[in-house]
Amino acid sequence: MNARRALYPLVAVYLSLIFALNTQAADQTAKDAPSSTPKTRITHALTLMGEPKYPANFERFDYTSPKAQKGGGVRLAGLGTFDSLNPFVTKGTPAIDIGLLFDTLLRGSDDEPFSRYGLVAEKIELADDHSFVIFHLNPKARFHDGRSITADDVVFSFNILTTKGAPIYASYYADIKGVQALDGARVKFDFKSTTNKELPLILGEFPILPKHFWQNKDFANSSLEVPLGSGPYKVKKVDAGRSIVYERVADYWAADLPVNRGIYNYDQVAIDYFRDDGVIIEALKAGQIDYRWENIAKSWATAYEVPAVKLGTLKKQLIDDKSPTGMAAIVLNLRKPPFDNMLVRQALNYAFDFEWTNKNVFFDSYQRIDSYFSNSELASSGLPSGRELEILKKYKDKLPETVFNQVYTNPKTDGSGNNRDNMLRAQQLLQQAGFVVKDGKLLDPKTQKPVVIELISHMATFERVANPYVQNLKRLGIQLDFRVVDPSQYLNRLNNFNFDMTFGALGQSLSPGNEQREFWSSAAAGIEGSRNYSGIKNPVIDELVELIAQAPNRQELIAATHALDRVLLNNHYMVPLYNFTKHRLVYWDKFGQPETSPAFDGAFQTGFFTWWIDKDKEAKLNAAKP
User: Which of 14, 110, 138, 496 has the fewest CB atoms within 10 Å, i.e. the most exposed one?
Assistant: First the structure.
């Protein structure tokens, strides 16, 4: 996923936050600095691992094409509704792709694990001791109203996002000591610590907002007022809750920068909202929308058996996804009983029959997730050893014994639907926790009341997963009620932690860091709108998160992440679900595509914007349609 859009908190569920630091720098050193001031080096890019792939004079990213044409329009689909054009706060449901309006200081490449290149900032001046960074702004940078982007705008943006924006901003940038405009084109960020190596990179990711537009407005509230931006698109038309149309900025100031060449090729992007995925699929087959990133295995297998697919006018395409898949799970809210009991949480996992669900619902297309950092080298495996074991030994008395003596595995069945052994194990765990069954109902030992759980989602398609789970829990005496709620209500309940269980996902990157505080820390558990949905409060996890954020090198980062992953798994905070390491794309044959796809594009958002409308294909398609 485009990393700069990942910081717009409510736009995407999967998400995840990816960043890095480049110790390689251009051959320019700040001169005549006082001896007490750290030396600095100026560079075009930052990365955490080795050196950046692209040199200072690079032409374009390798996953773009010089053949790309500007022009034409695309029609996309959104699920549910929206009631806000302010994606930076937790109030309201923002429109899909509203992040296209906003540029950032730096831009990431989606074929490197963690590198950032100049966008609004054309140069990055980094202190050798990593105590501060100075961004030199591109003199061509402009907002859509023609006014220059200044250092004051950058300072204003950082301050308002961290004080009035969604909680993730304050948490994510907690190690920033101060920010100041040195002059109109240079802004300096001072760091609290010299060991947080990713800070310069993640600073490049927050959106730059126009001070003159926002300073007299109530930033903390959602609004349908069209915001002023500086990005490749602006809003053309809004039908609140039903549709939004973006148009490409004809005189976009950064259109010819290397980081943007071959990207953002559509003149118009129209998004219509639908009530459920089934309606979206029918709209696609009817030609009302042009493209869909298919996330439903059954639909991929059965919903597109139509003449257009056989004729080749409607394309189905699989593309490899090498980005971490993170954790998709049934999220348990530890703030409420009985989820505060680890034995109960473990029993809930034994009751989930993945193998039957995969066979009967998903056409055997998925694999069970066994790591919070799945599909990457950051996932723990085997028993802890080496540096990871050294880290964990410090907390031996505070961790489950299984962290050290058992390889974590999810319960398995033969897929027949007869998961008797797992259900017996779940019963044993519940009995061990003090729960008893009376008249077919499981009683909470504290209240002596039947255990009744509500599982919520904003997607009706999850009913196919929930129904067999409902039946298995019924066998344990637990009443599970699955409820589909309106997307706006769902987000409100999620932000306020007003749920028992929900289907959720936490995306990860190849370079985890400061964002882990937002996911797992005790502090985040008490902040409404944070991504610590489970309400985890564990001092060991707090310390492991800090080890990740302050990791001095890649080896230490991997060891600390393995340790965190193992502790999360063995505390059974969630019921892991499943993942898929390819993109399923369905689209009408009107697009041109680069020869190479971005390797680390989790939801294929960047990839789609490297496509373009091929006028010859579009003409043939129009002629072939009834």
Answer: 496
In a domain, 266, yes or no: no
What single DSSP character describes residue 227? Answer: P
- Cα gap 517→538, rounded to integer Å: 12
- Six token digits for residue 487: 């997307």
Which residues does 362 contact at the CB level (< 8 Å), separation at least 6?
A: 297, 298, 578
Q: Residue 268: in which H helix or E strand, if any?
A: strand 268-274
List CB contacts of 626: < 8 A, sequence separation 6 or more.
none
pLDDT at 361: 92
Per DSSP, the residues of 58-106 read --S-TTS-TT-----EEEEEEES---BS-TTSSSS-BPTTGGGG--BSE
- 611 contacts 598 by C-beta, under 8 angstroms: no
Q: Check: CB of residue 100 under 8 Å from CB of residue 269.
A: yes
Left, alpha or beta for 50 (phi > 0: left; psi -120 to 50: alpha)?
A: left
Looking at the fold, whether 15 and 136 belong to one and the same domain comes out as yes
> Tell me, what CATH number does 563's domain have?
3.10.105.10
Residue 578 has pLDDT above 70, yes or no: yes
Q: Is residue 399 part of a domain?
A: yes
Rounded CA separation 18/321 (Å): 15
CATH number of the domain to which 110 belongs:
3.40.190.10
Question: For the segment 31-51, what is each residue's pLDDT rounded down to a tens digit?
Answer: 344 446 889 999 999 998 789
pLDDT tens, position by position, 379-418 = 999 999 999 999 999 999 999 999 999 999 999 999 999 9
CB proximity list for 142: less than 8 A, separation 6 or greater:
148, 149, 230, 253
In whole angstroms, give the CA distance from residue 334 to residue 332. 6
Residue-wise pLDDT for 475-512, tens only, equals 999 999 999 998 889 999 999 999 999 999 998 988 89
- Residue 122 domain boundaries: 3-53+102-214
Number of domains in the chain: 2
> Closest Cα to residue 517, out of 225, 283, 196, 178?
196
237 part of a folded domain: no
Reduce the DSSP state of residue 431 to 3 states and report it: helix
Asked whether residue 614 is assigned to any structural domain, the reply reads: no
Q: Is the dihedral of CA 187, 192, 197, 203 positive or negative?
A: negative
Question: How do strand 591-592 and strand 441-443 relate by DSSP bridges?
Answer: unpaired
Q: Before 338, cis peptide (omega within 30)?
A: yes
Residue 470 has phi, psi (to 5 degrees) of -60, -45
Q: Left if phi > 0, otherwise alpha if psi is -120 to 50, otherwise beta: which for 438?
A: beta
Are 199 and 341 members of one domain?
no
User: Are 82 and 94 contacting, i.e. CB atoms less than 8 angstroms apart?
Assistant: yes
From 179, 214, 249, the end of a domain falls on 214
* Cβ pair 597, 607 in contact under 8 A: yes
